[in-house]
Structures are given as C-alpha cells and as structure tokens.
C-alpha cells in the first residue's frame, strides 16, 4: 500500500512538501529521489523515525537503507557517535555486532528500543555490557533506574550479567 501511495504522490515529480507525508512512505523512496527536497541526512533522520518493520528484517531494501545511511553520514569504520546514532534512529537496530562493539555503550539505550536482535548483535551487546565501559557502568553498579533505561535489552543478558546486578 505504501509503495502504491508513493507512486501516486510522486506521479508528477517529488513534491516539495514531502516531509509532511508519513515517514513510513519514505522507506520506499531512495535518498537520491529525496535530494530534491532535502539533504540525505535529513532523509535518514526521517527514516529513523519511520516504522522499519514495514520492511522485513533481512530484506534487501532494509539492508540497502542502512548501507546508504552509513555512506551518507560518512561514517568511517564501525564507530557510531551520538549525533549519527540520533540520525539513524531505528536503523540502529540493523547494525552488525561490530558496530555495537566499536561504539561501546553509546548505542545501548537506543538499542533497548529494538524489537529483536540477531545472535551477532546479542553477543556484541553482552560484550559491551560485560566490559562495564559504558555510561551505565558495570552491572554490579546498576540501579532500578538503569534497568528501566535498558529494559529492552534484558532478554539479551546472560547469566553472568544477571548475576552481577544488585538485587
């Protein structure tokens, strides 16, 4: 339905008020198409607010969106800073484990909003948390507030992490 709606909206070219349309619609538009009305970082900022689950998790379209976002933001290597994490929004949920490890604890709070994780991502999250080298500190220093902040990650925690968290 969304791709059909996009065809109708763009029948006579890309409308100037594209940002006023639902963000989910942009999932079916390429960044180069969007460039007529804004920058690629603006496009991916909007995509980050869209419901990515409209596209299947491992779909070529979704993978391509992430690759284009990383290229647009000129992210060298696998480290994501806070500013880029904010722009990527829900696209962070598709980052490979190497990005999660390299970025350290910066991504944890954002990742806790994700619906599910691939095994590679789960392992990376556990590695980052176990290192204790995050803004939340080691699990032994966590409070109820910390657990609320990271609630979406709790299913990923293994026995070693859970055992360290104070009762």
From TrEMBL:
<dbReference type="InterPro" id="IPR026664">
    <property type="entry name" value="Stereocilin-rel"/>
</dbReference>
<keyword id="KW-0325">Glycoprotein</keyword>
<comment type="similarity">
    <text>Belongs to the mesothelin family.</text>
</comment>
<dbReference type="GO" id="GO:0009986">
    <property type="term" value="C:cell surface"/>
</dbReference>
<dbReference type="Pfam" id="PF06060">
    <property type="entry name" value="Mesothelin"/>
</dbReference>
<protein>
    <submittedName>
        <fullName>MSLN protein</fullName>
    </submittedName>
</protein>
<dbReference type="GO" id="GO:0007160">
    <property type="term" value="P:cell-matrix adhesion"/>
</dbReference>
<dbReference type="InterPro" id="IPR010335">
    <property type="entry name" value="Mesothelin"/>
</dbReference>
<dbReference type="GO" id="GO:0016020">
    <property type="term" value="C:membrane"/>
</dbReference>
<keyword id="KW-0472">Membrane</keyword>
<keyword id="KW-0130">Cell adhesion</keyword>
<keyword id="KW-0732">Signal</keyword>
């Amino acid at each position: 339905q969304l791709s059909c709606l996009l065809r109708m909206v763009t029948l006579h070219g890309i409308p100037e008020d594209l940002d006023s349309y639902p963000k989910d619609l942009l999932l079916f538009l390429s960044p180069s198409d969007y460039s007529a009305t804004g920058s690629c970082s603006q496009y991916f900022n909007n995509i980050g607010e869209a419901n990515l689950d409209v596209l299947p998790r491992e779909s070529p379209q979704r993978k391509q969106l992430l690759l284009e976002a990383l290229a647009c933001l000129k992210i060298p290597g696998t480290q994501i800073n806070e500013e880029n994490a904010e722009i990527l929004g829900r696209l962070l949920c598709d980052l490979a484990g190497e990005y999660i490890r390299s970025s350290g604890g910066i991504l944890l709070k954002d990742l806790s909003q994700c619906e599910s994780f691939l095994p590679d991502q789960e392992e990376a999250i556990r590695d980052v948390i176990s290192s204790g080298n995050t803004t939340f500190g080691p699990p032994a220093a966590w409070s109820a507030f910390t657990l609320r902040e990271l609630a979406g990650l709790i299913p990923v925690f293994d026995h070693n992490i859970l055992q360290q968290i104070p009762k």
